[in-house]
């Protein structure tokens, strides 16, 4: 079980980090009191592996209890947990600017104003800063640059594990999928619907697949689609995308689209990508 404790300066980007970790499949809790961390770890251990990656945000909102966090992190490590303390930082000028833009109140209420509150918080977090396994200064980082820094820490050595691909077969007669990132129309290829022996079958049946791919243009399309995906998916990974939906549509979503979806998924799996096939409209006719 892997734990990430996210802490650091208010306004430094902890919300963005926790969103990234959620997208990576982490079970995330915001504003966890440090004293509850050991008990929480016991509860998750008793869940028999249902939770493998955990991220907890613990920051100055817990008040003086923040001083207990270093001790709780050490306790987790001593008990054999893989635990990372990630500290988000930013300079005073950047934090002042961010707070003025959002018009939110700083959690440290210093009567001398916003800058004094930021400086007081920084002093309160000095011990955590020194104990951090990783420190990311977000002062001059864009969101995408922050994601790149996180990928250096969390992404697998195998880039293919950084994204999950859903290949969806659908029928245009039932409407286009609103959640598709990429969409392809295969209604231009031979339609098994007009072959009596194939009409009631689907693209999951080999004879339907053979019929669709008996067209040289269908084979060429599939080859070009595979080449396109091989080129584009690493670009999506580099951009920080953790899931991709590729929709392939025919008229009813039963024959041609399923055939192509299955073949594309087989190819993507063969080159190492985690790939699922979704037959959205099968059985709706």
Explain how this protein is built.
This protein has a five-stranded parallel beta sheet with strand order 2-3-1-4-5, sandwiched between helices. The chain has a four-stranded parallel beta sheet with strand order 7-8-6-9, covered by helices on one side. Helix 4 (92-102) packs across helix 5. Helices cover 40% and strands 19% of the residues. It contains ten helices and nine strands. The relative contact order is 0.14. Helix 2 (37-45) links the parallel strand 2 and strand 3 (53-57). The model has no long low-confidence stretch (mean pLDDT 92). The two termini are 46 Å apart. The longest helix has 24 residues, at 216-239. It has two domains: 2-154, P-loop containing nucleotide triphosphate hydrolases (Rossmann fold), CATH 3.40.50.300; 160-279, no CATH class. The protein is elongated and about 80 Å long. By secondary structure, it is α/β, with parallel strands linked by helices.
Name of the top-level CATH class of the largest domain: Alpha Beta
Overall spatial form: elongated
What is the gyration radius calculated from CA atoms? 25 Å
Q: State the distance separating the first and last CA atoms.
A: 46 Å
Task: Describe how the helices and strands are arranged.
Layout: E1 2-8, H1 14-23, E2 27-30, H2 37-45, E3 53-57, H3 69-78, E4 82-89, H4 92-102, H5 114-124, H6 126-131, E5 134-137, H7 143-154, E6 164-171, E7 182-185, H8 206-212, H9 216-239, E8 243-250, H10 256-270, E9 274-279
Helix pairs in contact: 4-5, 9-10
């Amino acid at each position: 079980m892997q734990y990430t404790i996210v802490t650091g300066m208010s306004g430094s980007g902890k919300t963005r980090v926790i969103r990234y970790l959620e997208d990576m499949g982490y079970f995330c809790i915001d504003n966890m009191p440090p004293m509850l961390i050991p008990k929480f770890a016991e509860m998750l251990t008793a869940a028999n592996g249902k939770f493998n990656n955990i991220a907890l945000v613990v920051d100055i909102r817990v008040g003086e209890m923040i001083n207990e966090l270093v001790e709780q992190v050490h306790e987790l490590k001593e008990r054999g947990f893989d635990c990372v303390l990630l500290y988000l930082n930013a300079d005073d000028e950047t934090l002042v600017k961010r707070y003025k833009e959002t018009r939110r109140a700083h959690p440290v209420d210093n009567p001398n104003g916003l800058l004094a509150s930021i400086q007081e918080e920084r002093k309160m977090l000095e011990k955590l800063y020194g104990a951090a396994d990783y420190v990311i200064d977000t002062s001059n980082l864009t969101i995408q640059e922050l994601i790149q820094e996180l990928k250096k820490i969390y992404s697998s050595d195998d880039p293919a594990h950084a994204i999950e691909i859903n290949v969806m077969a659908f029928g245009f007669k039932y409407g286009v999928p609103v959640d598709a990132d990429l969409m392809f129309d295969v209604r231009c290829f031979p339609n098994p619907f007009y072959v009596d022996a194939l009409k009631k079958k689907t693209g999951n049946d080999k004879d339907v697949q053979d019929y669709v791919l008996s067209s040289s243009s269908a084979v060429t399309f599939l080859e070009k689609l595979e080449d396109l995906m091989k080129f584009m998916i690493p670009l999506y990974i580099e951009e920080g995308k953790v899931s991709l939906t590729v929709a392939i549509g025919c008229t009813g979503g039963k024959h041609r689209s399923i055939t192509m979806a299955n073949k594309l998924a087989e190819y993507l799996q063969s080159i190492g990508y985690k790939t699922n096939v979704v037959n959205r409209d099968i059985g709706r006719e």
